[in-house]
Amino acid sequence: MTIPRTDAAQVIVTANGPYIVTGHVSLALLTIIIDAHGGSEEWARGEALPTKAKYALCRCGHSAHKPFCDGTHAKIDFDGTETASRAPYLEQAQVFDGPVLALLDAEKLCAFARFCDPNGRVWNQAAETDDPQVRAMFLRQVGNCPAGRLVAWDKAAGAPVEPTLPISIGLVEDPAEGCSGPLALQGNIAVIAADGFAYELRNRVTLCRCGESSNKPFCDGTHAAIKFKADYPATEQHMR
Ligand code: FES
């Protein structure tokens, strides 16, 4: 395929191949930190890896130089067929209503980061969002969902409440599960399908990099079941 020349931050999904990242997008480890009860509490962002303006990230899960592509996808006949819905998020999401904020939930996008679980679970918190303390917890936990499966909705404003995130790609690490996770795209990075379709622009998106998601190009949490492990650090010399 022809890769468009652009300086915009975007990720192009190539047919049965890697993700091509353009636009000087910062790339760093993004690790789930847990609380005293083992619940996902916050993110720790690592130092940015050295990268060029454009680089190729492994999508099949089998590169020897993860997170970068080394061409292994061709040797293993990787099937990267994109199967995810192309409907806008609001059409995919279920609504869990609350007095001040509602919770929107598109379950198929779950990346199994588990920020939704602590403090009584966000689905229950939504019903108590007239309590400022619960509301703050709810917004923090929902905003930490890397996949954008969960979105807080301000009923008075009629708009989503989104955290401010730097334009970056996080290489998710999940020590509590003993595995590596997806690519966490933050800050409205465009995702372009192999056939040129532009997925809806979103502040939070997780792309599969273990190769096993049933909802490609998005992560569906399978990396945890297969205990996907990435090797670090690699450098841009492994760029194709
Ligand atoms: S990285 Fe999550 S399913 Fe592949």
TrEMBL record:
UniProt keyword annotation of 4Fe-4S present: no
Entry keyword set: 2Fe-2S, Iron, Iron-sulfur, Metal-binding
Top-level lineage group: Bacteria
Signal peptide coordinates: none
GO CC term, one of those recorded: cytoplasm
GO molecular function: 2 iron, 2 sulfur cluster binding; metal ion binding
Keyword Iron-sulfur on entry: yes
SMART domains from the UniProt entry: ZnF_CDGSH
Name this protein carries in UniProt: CDGSH iron-sulfur domain-containing protein
Organism: Govanella unica
